[in-house]
Amino acid sequence: MRFSRAFRTCDSNDMNITAGTIRVIAAYGADDTIAYHRENHFTQSINLLRELPVAGLSSPKDSVSYNITMNNYTVPAQPTTYGCAFVPLPNVNGKHHIYKIEPLIQAGNELLVHHILLYACPNNTNISIAPGECYNTNPLFFQCLQVINVWAVGGKAFQFPDNVGLSIGSPDDPSYARLEIHYNNPEAKNFTDSSGVQLYYTKDLRPYNAGILEIGSALSFLFIPPSARSFRLYGLCNTQKFPEVNGQQVADMQVFAYQLHTHLAGRAVRVAHYRNGSQIGFLGRDMTYDFNFQEVKYLENITTIKMGDALQVECTYNTMDRRGITEMGLGTMNEMCMAFLFYYPKNNVSHCLSSPSATDIMNALHVSNPKDVNSVEWDENKINLLQQTIQEGKQDINITNSQIHLFMPGSFVTDTGYLYNITEGANATCNNATFSSLAATSAPNSSMTPAMNEPNLNNNGSGSLRGSVILINLALFLFQAALGASLRPPNRSP
After folding, report:
1. Is 234 designated active site?
2. Which among 158, 215, 249, 365 is least surrounded, fewest beta carbons within 10 Å?
């Protein structure tokens, strides 16, 4: 099928077509008869403006695939498990590049596997441990910190641009990785799992080695109050200390893709980019975030991070359906606020995470013990007070070196900073007086920058950007849906 529509119609009953997640409702039939659709209908999240470089990327002729999976891992009968295993990377003769990574989810476990991470291990890693739970008292699973693959529910295979790959096989490259799988098991069932990832690699080297930087909020003393319609948490990263972590000057980082991550209460995520104290754009943005649709997204244009730039992740949550606080943590009913930036050339920084002062939060709420926040009687004034305390207080920043085991000397560098204002670009004015602008009001002294990957909208509300991408994406979406709607598992819910 084929259709066309302005990205922005200036009709208050229409949704703008943006680069964020869009929920599509569809119905279909075997012929052109117009009738009630009965069972032939569904809803699904899709990114209509997603860039599709994979279609234009090459697959090397000497491509080899390699599976990294759990081996019938026994998942405990508990709601949340992070299972870990040390696994060998491909044993190759000389340097090769991984150019594509695809998830392998064991049939029947699709609703249990929440996310998969693969961490590179320094070559002095102690791997003499059987698979087990990642974040218990055994420190060995804390050894490997450099993310080399990230997949979450709703994601698909990811292929690197033709000039970039993950390096394996050289003396400085890892021989082992740590496979981490988050199992969301709300019914506390007993089951085994052999999920993982499939790597595709080649000896046809690309010019650059890829890196993945994790930024956002540390899993520290931080929480979201109940009955909050729109509550924001933040993660701040100052890159000025990256050279100190690396022990040498660091080249400009060329960001080509990103992945955003929260849990069930997340509604929007933005990654703002600052230089010399002023916002210059976004490195990632989804104002209609869907927990069930977490995929790696390519930037429309490669964006340069220079040393000294600041990066700020903002996550917006809705807890109107919750009676108690939602803590930052590992469980699906806990929350996270993070972004993964895919870039080149690789350096040794793996994480750049921040947290507000626990003392400031407790003082604002007049509690003397962190556990006492569970007994706070929340109302709108207290929610606003906590929000203001987080936004105006100091952020403590930790920058981690992937080449040194955590808690060893030199494994991380600390920094401090204060949050920046985040500004959306202003939309053009609609001629239609009934249209209500969705552009955010800019904060004082903030720079006005265009929203990343948004269509260029003129005064009559029309758009003229990447129409063929919309048609291709929608056609693929409807074709897949018509074939497999009856087989698709239901969306996860809290």
Report:
1. no
2. 249
